[in-house]
Amino acid sequence: MSTPVVKIENLVKRYKELIALDHFSLEIYEGEVFGLLGPNGSGKTTAINCLLSLLSFDKGSVEIFGEEMSPDNYKVKSKIGVIMQNVAVINELTVYENIDYFCGLYIKDKAERKKCVEEAVEFVGLEDFVKFYPKKLSGGLLRRLNIACGIAHKPKLIIFDEPTVAVDPQSRNKILEGIQELNRHGATIIYTSHYMEEVEQICTRIAIMDKGRQIALGTTEELKKQIKNTEKITVELMEQSAELLEEIRALPHVYEAEYIEGRAEVKFSGGKHNLIRLLTLLQQKDIRFGRVYSELPTLNDVFLEITGKQLRDS
Question: What are the residue boundaries of the structural domains of the chain, listed by start?
Answer without folding.
Answer: 6-225, 231-296
